Protein backbone atom coordinates (compact mmCIF):
# COMPACT_ATOMS: atom_id res chain seq x y z
CA UNK A 1 0.00 0.00 0.00
CA UNK A 2 2.92 2.33 0.63
CA UNK A 3 3.76 2.21 -3.09
CA UNK A 4 0.29 3.62 -3.77
CA UNK A 5 0.60 6.63 -1.46
CA UNK A 6 -1.40 9.53 -2.86
CA UNK A 7 -3.69 7.33 -4.98
CA UNK A 8 -7.15 5.92 -4.48
CA UNK A 9 -6.62 2.15 -4.44
CA UNK A 10 -9.14 -0.42 -5.61
CA UNK A 11 -9.13 -3.35 -3.16
CA UNK A 12 -10.98 -6.21 -4.83
CA UNK A 13 -12.29 -8.94 -2.53
CA UNK A 14 -12.32 -12.18 -4.49
CA UNK A 15 -15.28 -14.05 -3.06
CA UNK A 16 -17.41 -15.96 -5.52
CA UNK A 17 -20.35 -18.19 -4.77
CA UNK A 18 -19.84 -21.01 -7.24
CA UNK A 19 -19.66 -24.78 -7.00
CA UNK A 20 -16.03 -24.63 -8.14
CA UNK A 21 -15.17 -22.27 -5.26
CA UNK A 22 -14.93 -24.15 -1.99
CA UNK A 23 -13.73 -21.09 -0.06
CA UNK A 24 -16.77 -18.82 -0.49
CA UNK A 25 -17.31 -16.80 2.68
CA UNK A 26 -21.05 -16.31 3.17
CA UNK A 27 -20.51 -15.00 6.72
CA UNK A 28 -18.88 -11.72 5.67
CA UNK A 29 -15.98 -12.42 8.01
CA UNK A 30 -13.34 -11.97 5.32
CA UNK A 31 -14.84 -8.59 4.31
CA UNK A 32 -14.81 -7.59 8.00
CA UNK A 33 -11.12 -8.52 8.24
CA UNK A 34 -10.30 -6.47 5.14
CA UNK A 35 -12.18 -3.43 6.46
CA UNK A 36 -10.59 -3.77 9.91
CA UNK A 37 -7.11 -3.99 8.38
CA UNK A 38 -7.75 -0.90 6.27
CA UNK A 39 -8.99 0.98 9.33
CA UNK A 40 -6.01 -0.09 11.46
CA UNK A 41 -3.51 0.92 8.77
CA UNK A 42 -5.31 4.23 8.21
CA UNK A 43 -6.13 3.37 4.59
CA UNK A 44 -9.93 3.15 4.86
CA UNK A 45 -10.43 6.64 3.44
CA UNK A 46 -8.02 6.02 0.54
CA UNK A 47 -9.53 2.87 -0.96
CA UNK A 48 -12.59 1.63 -2.72
CA UNK A 49 -13.51 -1.94 -1.91
CA UNK A 50 -14.94 -3.91 -4.82
CA UNK A 51 -16.29 -7.38 -5.42
CA UNK A 52 -18.43 -9.22 -7.95
CA UNK A 53 -20.31 -10.65 -4.97
CA UNK A 54 -23.10 -8.29 -3.89
CA UNK A 55 -23.24 -9.80 -0.38
CA UNK A 56 -19.53 -9.12 0.08
CA UNK A 57 -20.06 -5.48 -0.95
CA UNK A 58 -22.95 -5.26 1.51
CA UNK A 59 -20.81 -6.76 4.27
CA UNK A 60 -17.99 -4.26 3.66
CA UNK A 61 -20.49 -1.40 3.76
CA UNK A 62 -22.00 -2.72 7.03
CA UNK A 63 -18.62 -2.66 8.77
CA UNK A 64 -17.80 0.93 7.76
CA UNK A 65 -20.56 3.22 6.53
CA UNK A 66 -17.99 5.69 5.16
CA UNK A 67 -15.78 3.33 3.19
CA UNK A 68 -16.18 3.50 -0.58
CA UNK A 69 -17.72 0.39 -2.10
CA UNK A 70 -17.96 -0.48 -5.80
CA UNK A 71 -19.93 -3.43 -7.11
CA UNK A 72 -18.20 -5.21 -10.00
CA UNK A 73 -20.69 -6.05 -12.73
CA UNK A 74 -20.60 -8.20 -15.83
CA UNK A 75 -23.37 -8.56 -18.41
CA UNK A 76 -26.37 -7.64 -16.30
CA UNK A 77 -29.38 -5.38 -16.59
CA UNK A 78 -27.33 -2.27 -15.91
CA UNK A 79 -30.23 -0.02 -14.86
CA UNK A 80 -31.48 -2.57 -12.31
CA UNK A 81 -27.98 -3.23 -10.98
CA UNK A 82 -27.33 0.49 -10.59
CA UNK A 83 -30.63 0.99 -8.79
CA UNK A 84 -29.73 -1.88 -6.44
CA UNK A 85 -26.25 -0.40 -5.84
CA UNK A 86 -27.81 2.97 -5.04
CA UNK A 87 -30.34 1.46 -2.63
CA UNK A 88 -27.56 -0.45 -0.85
CA UNK A 89 -25.52 2.71 -0.40
CA UNK A 90 -22.63 1.70 -2.64
CA UNK A 91 -20.38 4.46 -3.96
CA UNK A 92 -19.87 3.06 -7.42
CA UNK A 93 -20.48 0.36 -9.94
CA UNK A 94 -17.62 -1.26 -11.83
CA UNK A 95 -19.06 -2.62 -15.09
CA UNK A 96 -17.04 -4.20 -17.88
CA UNK A 97 -16.44 -1.53 -20.49
CA UNK A 98 -18.36 -3.47 -23.16
CA UNK A 99 -21.49 -3.20 -20.99
CA UNK A 100 -21.40 0.62 -20.87
CA UNK A 101 -23.24 3.10 -23.03
CA UNK A 102 -24.62 6.63 -22.75
CA UNK A 103 -27.86 5.36 -21.19
CA UNK A 104 -25.98 3.54 -18.41
CA UNK A 105 -23.91 6.65 -17.74
CA UNK A 106 -27.07 8.77 -17.52
CA UNK A 107 -28.58 6.31 -15.03
CA UNK A 108 -25.41 6.37 -12.93
CA UNK A 109 -25.38 10.16 -12.89
CA UNK A 110 -29.06 10.26 -11.89
CA UNK A 111 -28.37 7.81 -9.03
CA UNK A 112 -25.16 9.65 -8.02
CA UNK A 113 -22.99 6.58 -8.61
CA UNK A 114 -19.43 6.67 -9.84
CA UNK A 115 -18.62 4.43 -12.80
CA UNK A 116 -15.23 2.74 -12.76
CA UNK A 117 -14.83 0.37 -15.68
CA UNK A 118 -12.50 -2.56 -16.34
CA UNK A 119 -10.24 -3.85 -18.09
CA UNK A 120 -9.84 -1.32 -20.89
CA UNK A 121 -6.64 -1.70 -22.91
CA UNK A 122 -7.08 -0.91 -26.62
CA UNK A 123 -6.74 2.65 -27.88
CA UNK A 124 -10.24 2.51 -29.35
CA UNK A 125 -11.88 1.20 -26.16
CA UNK A 126 -9.93 3.66 -24.00
CA UNK A 127 -11.07 6.56 -26.17
CA UNK A 128 -14.69 5.39 -26.14
CA UNK A 129 -14.84 4.95 -22.35
CA UNK A 130 -13.15 8.30 -21.74
CA UNK A 131 -15.67 9.91 -24.09
CA UNK A 132 -18.51 8.33 -22.06
CA UNK A 133 -17.23 10.18 -19.00
CA UNK A 134 -16.42 7.31 -16.65
CA UNK A 135 -14.87 8.23 -13.31
CA UNK A 136 -12.00 5.75 -13.54
CA UNK A 137 -10.60 3.14 -15.88
CA UNK A 138 -8.96 -0.07 -14.76
CA UNK A 139 -6.34 -0.92 -17.38
CA UNK A 140 -3.18 -2.88 -18.01
CA UNK A 141 -2.00 0.05 -20.15
CA UNK A 142 -1.87 3.08 -17.80
CA UNK A 143 0.60 5.06 -19.93
CA UNK A 144 -1.55 4.63 -23.04
CA UNK A 145 -4.69 5.55 -21.07
CA UNK A 146 -3.06 8.71 -19.72
CA UNK A 147 -1.99 9.88 -23.18
CA UNK A 148 -5.50 9.32 -24.54
CA UNK A 149 -7.15 10.98 -21.53
CA UNK A 150 -4.80 13.97 -21.75
CA UNK A 151 -5.69 14.43 -25.42
CA UNK A 152 -9.45 13.94 -25.01
CA UNK A 153 -11.57 16.94 -25.87
CA UNK A 154 -13.12 18.68 -22.87
CA UNK A 155 -16.91 18.52 -22.45
Overview of this structure, please?
- With 155 residues, the chain is an alpha/beta fold.
- Helix 1 (29-40) packs across helix 2 and helix 5 packs across helix 6.
- It has 6 helices and 6 strands; from the N terminus they run E-H-E-H-E-H-E-H-E-H-E-H.
Main attributes of the structure:
six-stranded parallel sheet, globular, single chain, 6 helices, 155 residues, alpha/beta
* Global structural class: alpha/beta
Based on CA atoms alone, the radius of gyration comes out at 16 Å
Q: How much strand content do the residues show?
A: 15-25%
User: In sequence order, what are the helices and strands, one letter per element?
Assistant: EHEHEHEHEHEH
Whole-number total of structural domains: 2
Mean pLDDT: 94
Quick structural summary:
By secondary structure, this protein is α/β, with parallel strands linked by helices. It is built from six helices and six strands, in the order E-H-E-H-E-H-E-H-E-H-E-H. Helix 1 packs across helix 2 (54-63) and helix 5 packs across helix 6 (142-151).
